[in-house]
Amino acid sequence: xxxxxxxxxxxxxxxxxxxxxxxxxxxxxxxxxxxxxxxxxxxxxxxxxxxxxxxxxxxxxxxxxxxxxxxxxxxxxxxxxxxxxxxxxxxxxxxxxxxxxxxxxxxxxxxx
Length: 112
What we know:
Layout: E1 10-13, E2 18-21, H1 27-43, H2 52-66, H3 69-78, H4 82-89, H5 93-105
């Protein structure tokens, strides 16, 4: 379904236990937004997040769902540009930034 607010690509509606995605999203956008909203659902977050920590957590968890650390590490040795990495990993650039933040908070996730 199209979402009236053009800045909202998806939303978790806790009362209905439902995730709504804008039907104008590309396949890549859809899977990234869905992973983000699944994180909100897992944590029982309220709808329409104003909580910046919940949004960052949802981004980082989405990155963890969508990016294989081994594949990321191999690609990053070729080029560390986030837009290029996003294209190669078929995710949105914000997912790359969230993955890097996730690695920063938990270096053990990095492949040695």
